[in-house]
Write a structure and sequence with these properties.
This protein has 383 residues and is α+β, with helices and mostly antiparallel strands. It has 13 helices and 16 strands. It has one domain. The protein is globular and about 65 Å long. Pfam families: HODM_asu-like (PF11927).
């Protein structure tokens, strides 16, 4: 769906039916599968009583989504992702399928991270939000998928949709969904204030490539800085050692073969040895093309400020815009906790096994002495 068609659906608001404007009804109808419209209480072009959120089907893109009827986010543990198996000799895609049940994740850290996201929007608004004209239709399509269809059904104890009002029962905030349906910037901000994931939009350019055209990035870990807008997959990953030689063409073919609605996931990890803040436009990476230089020797590291940063990345191809959306959730774990849980040696092995160029890229020479000693022994380096 191009921007013109999308605008004609949303902005054609003329009157109110059952508490929902016609524009809202039409655009939501467009996203409910035809064979599911009886479930929604919708017949051809007759409107009986629309009810939210139960009016929407319980499957997203053919994948059943379970309601968590008794979910209490305050008691939900943070998932202990540990994707640091020994690295292969070349970069691998590391892609796996993902159920829509696990698309958006919420846990006991929800309110704290929403507060951090809000502060990031205040401090770095120009860098954290980006909307180009090519991405507007994709952003609004994702807004419908997440805010209208997915989270009110998946987490009914936290989110409620009543007519055109979306309510977050955990924060007490309310939103008019018409605002998000008509304005991609507002749609991104509503997403930002209700889920912890960042979203990056790769939009087809009509020439067989997908290009980075929009984002909400409160917790960027590199790659998707504002300077990269307009770049292709290959161009974005140019700094990664071995990417073009090993998997560049494979990624392009994989993207071409992705089916609309398909959801996949992969993990990325790095070490962050100078604090827990998540807003890092350059990530924790070494970029010689930006004038970065390697140290002559490993520096002294404050282990109390050292963390494993894990990114869970899901990719989904949207049905109408054909855009590919990266949904990125960041997790921070103190190295002290890694050692306490018995994974220190495993992480040390993964760090050492990286090829030299990949190790440099992940800034290994800056912190390897102190970090490796601590992970292996549980004691601080005394040299």
């Amino acid at each position: 769906m191009d921007t013109t068609n999308l605008a004609s659906l949303v902005t054609g608001v003329v009157f109110t039916l059952a508490g929902i404007t016609l524009g809202t009804y039409l655009i939501i109808l467009a996203y409910v599968p035809r064979n599911k419209r009886s479930v929604a209480g919708i017949s051809s072009f007759g409107l009986r009583q629309l009810r939210f959120p139960s009016s929407f089907p319980t499957d997203i893109d053919g994948d059943f989504v379970e309601e968590l009827l008794h979910f209490d986010f305050r008691n939900a543990p943070i998932r202990p992702y540990r994707p640091f198996l020994p690295a292969p000799k070349h970069v691998a895609m590391g892609i796996d399928t993902c159920l829509h049940n696990d698309w958006i994740q919420i846990d006991s850290g929800y309110l704290n991270r929403l507060q951090e996201r809000s502060q990031t929007l205040q401090d770095h608004a120009k860098d954290a939000v980006g909307v180009k004209s090519h991405s507007r239709a994709a952003i609004i399509e994702l807004f419908i998928e997440v805010i209208i269809r997915h989270i009110p059904h998946r987490f009914p104890t936290m989110f409620k949709l009543e007519n055109s009002t979306f309510k977050n029962l955990a924060t007490g905030k309310e939103y008019n969904i018409l605002d998000g349906l008509q304005d991609a910037d507002i749609a991104l901000r509503i997403l930002c204030e209700n889920v912890e994931e960042d979203f990056y939009f790769m939009v087809p350019d009509g020439k067989g490539e997908w290009r980075f055209q929009g984002y909400i990035a409160c917790f960027p870990g590199g790659f998707f800085s504002p300077q990269r807008v307009g770049e292709s997959f290959c161009e974005i990953h140019q700094p990664v050692p071995g990417y073009n030689e090993r998997i560049g063409k494979g990624v392009d073919k994989f993207v071409q073969r992705m089916k609309p609605g398909e959801l996949i996931q992969r993990f990325n990890w790095s070490l962050q040895c100078d604090g827990k803040d998540l807003f890092r436009l350059d990530g924790n990476n070494f970029y010689p093309e930006k004038g970065h230089t390697l140290p002559d020797r490993s520096k002294a590291i404050d282990l109390d400020q050292s963390y494993l940063r894990c990114e869970r990345q899901t990719l989904k191809k949207l049905r109408r815009s054909q855009a590919i959306v990266f949904c990125v959730r960041s997790y921070m774990t103190s190295l002290h906790d890694i050692v306490k849980e018995g994974n220190g040696i495993k992480l040390a092995e993964a760090i050492v096994s990286m090829p030299e160029k990949l190790g440099d890229y992940k800034m290994r020479p800056f912190w390897e002495r102190d970090v490796l000693h601590y992970l292996r022994t549980g004691e601080r380096y005394e040299g």
